[in-house]
Amino acid sequence: MTKASMTHTPIPAIAATLIGAILIVSLSIFMGSYWTVVALNLFMWIALTQSWSLFSGMTGYISLGHVVAYGIGAYLVATTFKIIPLWLSIPLGGLAAGVFALIVAIPVLRVRGPYFVILTFGLAELVKFILLYTETTFGKSSRLLFGAPKTETLLYWVAALAVVATLITYFVGRSRFGKGLAAVREDETAAETVGVPVTRLKVLAFAASAVIPGMVGGLMTMRSTYFDVLQVFNPTISFSIVTMAIIGGAGDARGPILGALFMLGLAELLWSTAPQLYFILLGLFLIGFVLFAPNGMIGLIKRRKRSSAGVAS
User: Could you tell me the residue ranges of all domains in the chain?
Assistant: First the structure.
């Protein structure tokens, strides 16, 4: 194998992802409960943002409805808690979210641009209030979940999901499937004209992107030990995911990691001491990246590498 071909093998990326996750998990547990929770939140956001990037980052369809998958998974796990084991209910939560996304994909994906953004946000609110009405009708608007796993155990599971989501985004981006999604992002009409199965690719990506958030939602419900429909279907979750993807750079497996690290670091610095300043700075960073670095941190890194290569040559 030549040196050039070795640089294109996925082994270094896989190894770096696994080693990074193991180090973060080990260090956070060693440093105490506070850092364990911080690591748990970090992996949660990485998993959610990577799954969002799998569809929205690669197709250009900006979704504000990712919280639906998170909420469906949380709802299934909460309602079956102590009835079926968690090792079964967590995957079922992901499966339920994926099936729901598959069912609504065809009508939802008929619209594009800002109409798609509005539609996904409206869908999330619709599902939220349907479940809220159902829960209140039966007198179960909230649930206490006694006997949930320890934070350390949840950290292992969520970290594993973050690693899986990262690797999926990485491999899909390099695959023929990913190239087809990129063609949709560049020019959907032209892609369809030259024979790219646009509808099938979009539906599959849309459904696949919902599976991991469903499992993450179930695990994070165990973390809070309390289930409430308004909490798990909070639109802030979707907005946070989109913000991390924009700041980090969507469509590249490294982008969601950088975006999650940036936002979580900013929150840890300012949230408890100056929450107003946190939102002001977050808004300024978001505007700045949209206007001057639309490809996020990853775009800046790639631009710097090209500049350095140009100077060296």
Answer: 13-235
